[in-house]
Amino acid sequence: FYRVHVQEQVTRAERQFLSLSQKHQNLLPGVLPKLAQVRECAEHNQEILEAIVHNSLHMFENVEYGNRVGLDSNQSHTHYAHIENQHCMPVDPKKTRSSTFDMDKLKSTIKQFVRDWSEVGKAERDSCYKPIIREIQRLFPSDQ
Predict the structure, then answer these.
(1) In terms of C-beta density within 10 A (0-12 exposed, 13-18 middle, 19 or more buried), how is residue 6 classed?
(2) The predicted structure's pLDDT at residue 81
(3) Is the pLDDT at 136 greater than 90, yes or no?
(4) Does residue 115 contact residue 124 with C-beta atoms inside 8 Å?
(5) What is the distance between the alpha carbons of residues 47 and 112, in angstroms, rounded to a whole number?
(6) Taking Cα atoms as reference points, which of 55, 56, 32, 38 lies closest to residue 2?
(7) Phi and psi (nearest 5°) for 77?
(8) DSSP secondary structure of the chain
(9) Is residue 83 within 8 Å of residue 98, measured between CB atoms?
(10) 81: left (phi over 0), alpha (psi -120 to 50) or beta
């Protein structure tokens, strides 16, 4: 659902940009390459999200999850609901579309992943976590 949501947003932004006069488009030469980069990043994020879901399915019971089963030439997915003690059942993605609120929460979570795990987020991570870690180390020294 994330992939579809972001692709729709990028396509809408591209259409809006291309609807501008050539004069106005020339004032913003980096827009289309930036949108192409957003599209690529969304694909990478989707792969990460699928890996997270795939590697955590065993942790939950009686909950439906979408699972990538295969890709067609357009990279669209077949989604299946996984319910305990039942076989995989096809799910119509159009009937289970995520809300904008859900997508905003997901984007916030992705940003937290960047902050907590990437080199890009190191400065923010250090400013947030190092004082806490130092205080814990002060209160509970490793030599005790």
Answers:
(1) buried
(2) 44
(3) yes
(4) yes
(5) 17
(6) 38
(7) -110, 155
(8) -HHHHHHHHHHHHHHHHHTS-HHHHHT-TTHHHHHHHHHHHHHHHHHHHHHHHHHHGGG-SS--------B-TT--B--EE--TTS--EE--GGGGPPPHHHHHHHHHHHHHHHHHHSSTTHHHHHHHHHHHHHHHHHHS-TT-
(9) no
(10) beta
Q: What is the pLDDT of residues 97-130, one digit of tens each?
A: 678 888 889 889 888 888 888 999 999 999 999 9
Question: How does pLDDT run across 51-99, given as a tens digit for each residue?
Answer: 988 888 777 664 555 544 433 334 444 444 444 444 444 455 555 667 8
Amino acid 68: pLDDT = 43
Count of Cβ atoms closer than 10 Å to residue 77 Cβ: 19
